[in-house]
């Protein structure tokens, strides 16, 4: 796969005055240059066209000669090699892709002119133009059909081993190839295009594991569409937990930004990203003693809590260390604004002591609503989020010892979460969100916009 100059990626949400409504997890805009690279690699560089043209046998060419020339017959004429193949692409709005292949075909056979037998080599320029349209969308796949295939012959060079060549042979070959080659080449192009379609569908329809938590099933959501500027693809992204439960996500109509100089723009919707975060962030409850070994600010936190305990609570003023339990509450939510991505996440924080009889005394049950600033990067074809604490909102759910105001505890618990829980979140997210390998276009020199 050749290294292409620039791949573009963008995350967005909400309504962006769409020109075409789509209801899927992802949308892609592929530039004509990218399509040309993709098809050139698949058809020419990988030898697919050469493979299916190799050994192509042409009908015998017969000429009766006439009054001033001898009868001519050319038999066993077959294709030896495809030379200098080139491919170009034009996107036809509302129709599909116009594919043009130019090449020199090297043909060889036996030539009989009168009673003289000779070997004949023919080099013919061909220009094949085919209009390709996608149709019959079903279950994430489409069929491709060639609506028009035009094959034009250019210059023809004929060489006999003996070096003798009459005008009659030249005229006969030109007329017969003009009549027969299009009918032979266009069906081959049709076969090649359908094979390429199968290959490219495989890049769009794939089940990709997300660590051990589950999978994302990417699938083409609708028929591809074309404008003069790009080929549009909408993909569903079904986020599935291990065991088969699918995490639902809503989709909103949206529009992709202009390609500018990029090969590809990939739009990931807020709801889809939120569903994948729910899959990744499956952190079990964390319980640990409130000691300096577990948390550097443990002594200050214990002092701050002790100061809030009403007088007369002897059991909670003992010298035994407090214990802390942190549990995820609800599902994460990613919010996308211009140049900013924030993850909203809630956790429950339980601060308790064990009585001598083994029972639990809850000093505090708190809910912390976190605003986490997201840093976004691409690594190994995956979207990786790194989170840092932006804001904390602390609220008291209950207290068995009568604590009623916890506002002074906010900095202590913010520090606790940054030191003990946020690393667990980032470790879970480090797996990354696997991105679809759209048409095999590599993720090189990625530009990320929010």
Automatic annotation (TrEMBL):
**Alphabetical list of Gene3D superfamilies matching this protein:** Bactericidal permeability-increasing protein, domain 1, Bactericidal permeability-increasing protein, domain 2
Q: Which domain of life is it from?
A: Eukaryota
> Domain Lipid-binding serum glycoprotein C-terminal, which positions?
258-450
Q: Which InterPro entries match?
A: Bactericidal_perm-incr_a/b_dom, BPI_fold-BPI/LBP, Lipid-bd_serum_glycop_C, Lipid-bd_serum_glycop_N
Q: Pinpoint the Lipid-binding serum glycoprotein N-terminal domain residues.
A: 29-244
Question: Know the name of this protein?
Answer: BPIB4 protein
Per UniProt, the keywords (alphabetical) are: Signal
The species this protein was found in: Oreotrochilus melanogaster
Task: Tell me which positions the record assigns to the signal sequence.
Answer: 1-24
Question: Could you tell me one molecular function GO term of this UniProt entry?
Answer: lipid binding
Q: Which Pfam families match?
A: LBP_BPI_CETP, LBP_BPI_CETP_C
Q: Keyword Kinase: yes or no?
A: no
């Amino acid at each position: 796969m050749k290294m292409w100059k620039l791949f573009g990626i963008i995350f967005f949400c909400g309504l962006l005055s769409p020109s075409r409504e789509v209801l899927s997890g992802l949308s892609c805009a592929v530039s004509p240059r990218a399509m040309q690279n993709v098809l050139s690699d698949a058809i020419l560089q990988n030898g697919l066209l050469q493979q299916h043209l190799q050994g192509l046998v042409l009908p015998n060419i017969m000429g009766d000669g006439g009054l001033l020339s001898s009868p001519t017959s050319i038999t066993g004429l077959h294709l030896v090699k495809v030379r200098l193949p080139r491919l170009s692409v034009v996107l036809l709005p509302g129709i599909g892709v116009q594919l043009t292949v130019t090449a020199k075909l090297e043909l060889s056979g036996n030539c009989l002119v009168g009673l003289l037998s000779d070997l004949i080599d023919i080099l013919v320029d061909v220009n094949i133009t085919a209009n390709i349209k996608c149709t019959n969308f079903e279950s994430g796949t489409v069929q491709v059909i060639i609506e028009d295939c035009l094959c034009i012959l250019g210059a023809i060079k004929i060489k006999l081993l003996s070096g003798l060549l009459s005008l009659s042979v030249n005229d006969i070959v030109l007329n017969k190839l003009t009549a027969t080659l299009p009918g032979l080449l266009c069906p081959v192009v049709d076969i090649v295009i359908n094979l390429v379609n199968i290959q490219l569908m495989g890049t769009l329809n794939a089940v990709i594991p997300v660590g051990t938590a589950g999978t994302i099933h990417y699938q083409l959501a609708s028929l591809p569409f074309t404008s003069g500027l790009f080929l549009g693809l909408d993909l569903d992204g079904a986020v599935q937990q291990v065991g088969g439960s699918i995490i639902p996500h809503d989709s909103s109509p949206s529009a992709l930004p202009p390609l500018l100089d990029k090969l590809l723009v990939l739009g990931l919707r807020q709801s889809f990203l939120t569903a994948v975060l729910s899959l990744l962030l499956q952190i079990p409850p964390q319980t640990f003693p409130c000691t300096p070994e577990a948390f550097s600010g443990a002594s200050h936190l214990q002092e701050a809590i002790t100061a809030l305990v009403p007088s007369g609570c002897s059991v909670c003023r003992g010298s035994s260390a407090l214990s802390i339990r942190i549990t995820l509450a609800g599902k994460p939510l990613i919010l996308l604004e211009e140049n900013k991505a924030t993850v909203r996440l809630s956790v429950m924080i339980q601060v308790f002591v064990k009585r001598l009889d083994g029972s639990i005394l809850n000093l505090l049950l708190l809910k912390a609503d976190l605003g986490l600033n997201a840093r976004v990067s691409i690594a190994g074809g995956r979207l990786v989020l790194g989170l840092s604490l932006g804001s904390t909102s602390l609220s008291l759910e209950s207290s068995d010892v009568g604590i009623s105001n916890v506002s002074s505890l906010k900095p202590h618990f913010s520090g606790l979460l940054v030191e003990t829980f946020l690393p667990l979140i980032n470790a879970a997210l480090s797996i990354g969100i696997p991105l679809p390998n759209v048409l095999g276009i590599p993720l090189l020199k990625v530009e990320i916009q929010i």
